[in-house]
Amino acid sequence: MPFGKKPPSRRGSLSDVPKDLLKQIERLEEIFMVKTDKLKEITDHFVGELTKGLTVEGGDIPMNPTWCMGFPTGYEKGTYLALDMGGTNLRVCEVSLPEEKGEFQIIQSKYRMPEDLKTGTGEELWGYIADCIHQFVEYHHEDEQDLETLPLGFTFSYPATQEYIDHGVLQRWTKGFDIKGVEGTDVVPPFEAALQERGLPIKLAALINDTTGTLIASAYTDEKTKIGCIFGTGCNAAYMENCGSIPKLAHMKLDPDTPMAINCEWGAFDNQHKVLPRTQYDILIDKDSPRPGQQTFEKMVAGLYLGEIFRLVLVDLHQTQECLIFEGQDIGKLQKPYSLDSSFLSAIEEDPFENLSETEDLFQKHLSITATKPELELCRRLAELIGTRAARLSACGVAAICKKKGWTECHVGADGTVFNKYPHFKARGAQALREIFEWKKGMKDPIVINPAEDGSGVGAALIAALTLKRIQEGNTAGIRDVKALIEGTAAQKAETDQVDE
To answer: Which residues form the Hexokinase C-terminal domain (predicted)?
Structure first.
């Protein structure tokens, strides 16, 4: 059955749904379904925006150079620290890379990020992080008197401009942070000062984004990997570009054949609203967001917004003159913005019962709404439509990178709660890729999106290792503190040298 025609429901039947609700379901299918021709149109526009972002004038998509220059071979060696600063937790890891190709050992500890830190001072933030690292090092190396300096890869997943891999200027806080005096400044010097105050034998070798880490970590265990993606609270991707194809770096006179990982920041795709099939609900989400007109793509596909799209549709149906759903019900809880997240939709799609009893319980427990069977059928179809649209649109970004690079086959490493936990997300994205590329029915998919390795841990450690290896080889482009890294991590040199295959 061609996509775009009304598909059969996965479970149950719409035969008992009244005509007025059936009409609404058909309307929702019309506005949320993304047909094959539209997928291709979006992908082609995506290719142009990716290319434009690499030029001096730029475009909607920033296409940030990361100064991670090359893939791992699988034979990297040494011991490295990795730091992952999230919105809720702080994770400190120690990653050991043995001689065996593609192998690693990791030990890690997780620390809660206190809420008051998010609106405190920069000094308090870096001090707390340094204290957590200090605690980690003391616990795991308590018997070592003269601990050698450990290189650190720092996963700092906030928008940052990098002229060097070991430094980064914060563009703006996200994830609930609002610390004055940090935006527009290099975050590395105050962070390293906090480490030095505590006498920690640690030297930051690389500041990275989680997409870049996902790309490198996945490529370490699977050499067919060419793209790293995040499909979670937000959405993003990274891939390797040749320096000769990055006009905005032409003034640096880099070897045109040298690879450079590009952090796309593709959540900003189509901020000009030229191709994405936005609904009235997408427009409302953008209008009421802290930054209207920004992150258009992300607001249609990322986990942060899926539940809100669902909620807005239900409120709209209730507030029509006919009160199409939940008549006589108190929808006070449903009217609270962002009261539902993507896990709510996941639970609806995973309901295994014909009578949707689990969905009924979900509405009663979380929203104090007693829904009828026809209302539950509409809610399930709506969840399917929103989840499917997110997966299909996300596939356009992957397809665009492949088309831009001329890749006809590759693996994509994907991380994030939506990819890993949302029902059918992977299968729906794979189907979209088949339609975009018109692969023959029955053939094995040449472009496959797989669950990623730990990008924020293993990936950060690997990029630290690759940075030190570049210094040893005399390639210091995009590395500011070359001398400090050489002196501070000299003990790593023997270990980071490649082992012959």
So the answer is: 226-466
